[in-house]
Amino acid sequence: MADGARNLISAENTIGALLARNATRHGSDIAIREKERGIWRETTWADYVDEVVAAAAGLERIGVGPGKAVLILGDNRARLYGGMLAVALLGGYPMPAYPGATLEELRHFLGEADIVAALAEDQEQVDKILELRDAGATGIAHIVYDEARGLGFYEVDGLMSWDHLVEMGRHDLNENPGLRDDILTRAGPEDPAIFMHSSGTTGKPKGIVLSQKNVLAAARNGHAGGAFEEGEEILAYLPMAWVGDYAITVAAALLLRFTVNVPERQETVVRDMREIAPTFYLAAPRSWDQMLTTIQVGMENSTWLKKTLYHFFMDRAIAAETRKLNGKSGGILEPLGRLLGEAMIFGPIKDHFGMSRLRNAFTGGEAIGEDTFVFYRALGIKLRQFYGQTEISAITAIQAPDEVRLHTVGKPVPGVEVKISDDGEILLRSDSVFSGYFNNPEASAEALEGGWLHSGDAGYLEEDGHLVVLGRVSEVMHTASGERYVPNYIENRLKFSPYIKDAAVIGAGLEELTAMVCIDFEAVGHWAEVNGVPYVSYADLSQRDEVAKLLRDAFRRVNAVIPEGLRLKRFVSLPKEFDPDDGEITRTRKLRRKVVQERYADVITALYDGSKEVHVSALVTYETGETGKVDRILPIREV
Predict the structure, then answer these.
(1) Which residues, in sequence order, are bridge partners of residue 383?
(2) Which of 512, 517, 493 is nearest to 568 (CA)?
(3) Where are the beta strands (DSSP E) in 101-171?
(4) pLDDT exceeds cutoff 80 at 627
(5) Where are the alpha helices (DSSP H) in 211-303?
(6) Most distant CA pair in the chain: distance in Å?
(7) In whole angstroms, what is the distance from residue 622 CA to residue 631 CA?
(8) How many angstroms separate the CA atoms of 211 and 228, rounded?
(9) SS3 per-residue string spanning 413-469
(10) What are the φ/ψ torsions at residue 41 (nearest 5 degrees)?
(11) Which end of the chain is less congested by CB atoms within 10 angstroms, N or C?
(12) What backbone phi and psi angles, to 5 degrees, belong to 351?
């Protein structure tokens, strides 16, 4: 690492210091772009910092300060990111929530901290906060909104626009010339940066306050480990309540002066990415799968010549990449084929999807399918896996660009120590590790016992330092014969199939393993259309015999790579997806196993008692918030 880069990432240790540095030394560089009504609007670091400081002064006027929290609700918007920084400058708690969070989930947050204000994206989110007020959340005295559409006739105490908040702050800054420097230097390294929550797979989400020292240490560690470089162009589209978004879009962007590009809407992300062509891109395996499906569908619908050229070059590139992953070298003509393929096929595909400039491409959150992973590597995108969790500010281990293995998550980044406990749990130590769960000393003591973060994940270190993650320690289970297995490990491998969106493996204390799966409606629906398979709904399509064959093939592929005693015997395709609104999965799509097993108890019984079919009455929550039921007779299928 060059001396300049080393000094860059070690000198400043607070959000305020980094904002001041970027405004002073790099004031004319673009800090953030946001697409509004089809136009990308740019803001320099100098202007961005001025607005953040003014917002902080305005927030202080309405009662935000140390110990006070601000609820942040909505999709990615530049002002919501600025609001996070402004609250942190005051020593308060920026508390982002998923835009689809239910009132029950938000009420849980109200019981944790003193929330005195809310920053909302638009009318929909303002209405949600007003419902909270009506339900007794009178402490939220002020609501600041970004998008004014639909709010012009609201007569609500404490409701104001972001522009009005900033105007109040600028007035106070003009009245007090020393206030700007005071705001930028007030918070220290141990003061809050962000208030996040655990996934809540086994109960209510726990509050996690990451300090400014924590998040900036994680950004430094990621940089030192080769995850990102100075001046990256990134797309801010991941949920703001997910630690991965904060670690990249806020902490690393601030430290290494990224240009953050905020798409117009979630629905325009693909188009906006094509226009921006980011240099860094992080996506969940499901997003990479969906993009792969789009590419394959597009090629199958193209001309004969294009299809022929695509398969000619792509098949050879995939074979070459597979050989590399298996430690074998290619033929003497392989570089020439790669060069021609790049010019005729790979380059145009990457350009069409906004991936032509990608230097650092990552997937995380769960395991990615081998076919998907190899495809992107063959396309010329050095896709890598990373591993982390909220309690360590997102970044623990990453794969090096030319040292990838499908079964590992790479080596721990510099600044993170990893060891494995006697019972196989991954233990972590770093400046990026949080100090404990908010107002929960018992859970904190358990998580940080012995000075190490107990990750809750089972895994092991290979001889060369690569980390292998098997799944949650709490989910290590045994069959009736004592065979040890991790259901999440098997579920992820089932989801390697593009036709399976979610899975729940059953078998603890039983003689054999079975599973319930939810089809991927988009992928299976497209397959059905191409192959002339009629259907009228998700529930109908999921039970078709033709679809059962696709699912059976996926089960057989998984059975081929797991021990004989753990091979899956039977399965059921459920008539609806697992849904966070129904409590079956978290907002980050992690399975709430206890809820699923209770809700589908009759299905589980039928999987083991010799039944040929089972009646299911499944709860469904519609987009309107209304609930209903799906009644179906489901076949019990043999693998």
Answers:
(1) 361
(2) 512
(3) 114-120, 142-145, 159-161
(4) no
(5) 212-224, 243-245, 253-256, 269-276, 285-300
(6) 79
(7) 15
(8) 21
(9) CCCCEEEECCCCEEEEECCCCCCCECCCHHHHHHHCHHHCEEEEEEEEECCCCCEEE
(10) -105, 125
(11) N
(12) -65, -40
Whether residue 126 contacts residue 147, with contact meaning beta carbons closer than 8 Å, is answered with no
The listed CATH number (3.30.70.100, 3.30.300.30, 3.40.980.10, 3.40.140.10) that belongs to domain 476-638? 3.30.300.30
Q: Which residues on adjacent β-strands are paired with residue 568?
A: 513
Q: At what angle do helices 78-89 and 179-186 cross, to 10 degrees?
A: 90
Token digits for 95? 């508390």
104-136 per-position pLDDT tens digit: 888 888 888 899 999 999 999 999 999 998 887
Superfamily of domain 283-473: ANL, N-terminal domain (3.40.50.12780)
Backbone angles phi, psi at 9, to 5 degrees: -95, 5
80, 58 Cβ separation under 8 angstroms: no
The neighbouring-strand residues paired with 505 are 515
> Which H/E stretch holds residue 196?
strand 192-197
Instruction: For domain 3-230, give the fold.
Output: Rossmann fold (3.40.50)
Query: In whole angstroms, what separates CA 212 from the centre of its chain?
Result: 21
Q: How far apart are CA 343 and CA 562, in angstroms?
A: 40
Token pair for 442: 């018992």
Give per-residue pLDDT as tens, 282-305.
Answer: 998 888 988 888 888 888 788 899
Please classify residue 29 by burial: count the beta carbons closer than 10 Å to its beta carbon, then call 0-12 exposed, 13-18 middle and 19+ buried.
middle
Q: pTM for the full model? A: 0.83
Residue in the block written with tokens 């491409």: 361
Closest listed residue to residue 401, CA positions, set 341, 363, 359: 359
Sorted by where each begins, the domain ranges of the chain are 3-230, 283-473, 476-638
Long-range own/partner contacts, residues 468-476 (CB < 8 A, 24 or more apart): 468/407, 468/408, 468/409, 469/387, 469/409, 469/426, 470/424, 472/201, 473/423, 473/424, 473/425, 474/202, 475/593, 476/424
Cβ atoms of residues 64 and 92 within 8 Å: yes
- 350-386: pLDDT as tens digits: 999 999 999 999 998 777 878 889 999 999 999 999 9
Complete DSSP assignment for 377-393: HHHT--EEEEE--GGGT
Residues recorded for the chain? 639
DSSP 471-515: EEGGG-EE-TT--EE-HHHHHHHHTTSTTEEEEEEE-TTSSSEEE
Each as own residue / partner, the long-range contacts of residues 636-639 (CB below 8 Å, 24 or more positions apart, any chain) are 636/570, 636/572, 636/606, 636/607, 636/611, 636/612, 637/548, 637/551, 637/552, 637/570, 637/571, 637/572, 637/573, 638/569, 638/570, 639/552, 639/555, 639/556, 639/559, 639/567, 639/568, 639/569, 639/570, 639/571
Positive or negative, the CA dihedral 280, 284, 288, 291 is: negative
The answer to whether 3-230 and 283-473 have equal CATH topology is yes
Please count the other Cβ atoms lying within 10 Å of the Cβ belonging to residue 174: 11
Tokens (6 digits) for 70:
């601000």
Per the model's pLDDT, the better-predicted residue between 33 and 332 turns out to be 33
How far, in Å, CA of 32 to CA of 46, rounded?
11
